[in-house]
Amino acid sequence: MVYNPTAIKVPDASAYERKVAGRQTHLYVLKNNTGMQIAITDFGAHLVGAWLPDRKGHQTSVIVGFDNIEALGKQKSYYGAIVGRYANRIAKGKFTLDGKKYNLFINNGPNSLHGGKDNFSYRIWDANKIDDRTLVLELLSEHLDEGYPGNLKVKVTYALTDNNEIVITYEATTDRTTVVNLTNHAYFNLNGEGNGDILYHVVQIAADKYTPIDKTMIPTGEIAPVKGTPFDFINPERIGKRININNTQLKFGNGYDHNFVLNRRGAHFPVAVVTGDKTGIKMEVYTDQPGIQFYTGNFTPGTNLTRGNVPDTMRTSFALETQHFPDSPNNPNFPSTVLKAGEIYKTQTIYKFSV
Fold it and tell me: What angle do CA 261, 265, 268 make, to 5 degrees?
C-alpha cells in the first residue's frame, strides 16, 4: 500500500461510545497549542492515538490504534492500555508476601502477564476531563482481584503539554500490603502508523545493564552488562541492525522484549530516545521508574486490523514500557514493588515528541 500520512485521523467519538459490561464507554481528545492531539478511552484507559506534524508539516499518527472500540476490545496485545496490577510477567503466577502465598491467573505460557485475564485494560474506568489538556481516570481493584491482595484505588492522569509531551501520572493506595507495577503499553511507529516496519528507527537507551530472561521470558535474577551484546544501546543504533543475530536472549524474546536497568531517572534526563528515519519525528522518554521494557512487536499476530485496516504484522511498531522489573516479587535483589497500607504509589512517565 502507498502510505498517506494525512489518511489516518483522530477516530470519531461515536465509534467509542458503546455499552461494555453494562457501562457506557467514551472517547476523550486532548489538544495543545502546537497542533498535537491525543485520544484516550475510558475502556482500559487506553491511549488510543497521538497525532502531530512531521518535518514536512504532515499530521502524522505515531501511536498504533483502532478505528472503533469493537476492534480494540478484540485484540490481545494491550495496544495503548494501562496494564496492572502488575505490568509484565510474574513467574508461574505465584508470589509470597508477608509469609502468605498468592496465586495469580496464568495467561502467558506458565506465567501471569500484565495483571491476569481480566486485567485493567478490560475495565471501564471512571473518567473526568478536567480541561482540553488533562484527563483523570480512576479505578477500584478489589481485594483478591485476579489473585492480588488488598483493595487498590488507582488514579491515572493523562496530560498534554505545549511542548508535545504526553505526561502520564500513576497513583495508587491500598488497605493492605500488596504489589503494584503500572505502565502504559502504547505501540509506536514514528514514521507514521501503518507505514512499514520500525527496523530503521534509531534507538538510544541509557542503560548499562539489563535483566536476561529464560525461555519462558522470566528474568533469571541476573543483572547483566549490555556491553558487547546486542542490547547495547548506550550509543544510538538502528533497531534492526542486530535483532536477527544468533543470540540466545534474542531467540528467547523473538527479538527485543527485555527489561533495561536505567542508569538514572527523573524529569531532567531522557532514559530513551527514538527517531523515525522517514519523518524525523523524535520521541524522548522520561521516567522515575528503575526499568524500561523495550519490545519490538515480535509477537503481534498480523490478524488485528489497526486504523485504516492495516494488519499489525510483526515489528511494525515498538513499545517502551516504563516499569519496575518483571517478577520483582520473586527476586529480592530487584527494586521492591511492595505497597503497604498508608503508603502512596506515585510515579510519572513522559513521552516527548519533536521534529
Answer: 145
Residue 13's nearest CA partner among 26, 31, 32 is 26
Catalytic residue (choose from 46, 185, 201, 324): 185
- Annotation says 26 is catalytic: no
239-277 residues labelled b (16+ CB within 10 A) or e (exposed): beebbeeeeebbebbebbbbbbbbeebeeeebbbbbbbe
φ, ψ (nearest 5 deg) of residue 276: -80, 130
Whether residue 9 is predicted with pLDDT greater than 90 in this model: the reply is no
Is 321 known to be catalytic? yes
Cell of 330: 520473586
Q: How far, in Å, are 84, 91, 153, 168, 267 from residue 348 at the CA level? A: 15, 26, 17, 6, 9
pTM (2 d.p.): 0.97
CA separation for the pair 121, 81 (Å, rounded):
5
Cell 500490603 found at: 177
| Placement of cell 527517531 in the chain | 275
Q: What is the pLDDT of residues 33-59, one digit of tens each?
A: 999 999 999 999 999 999 999 999 889
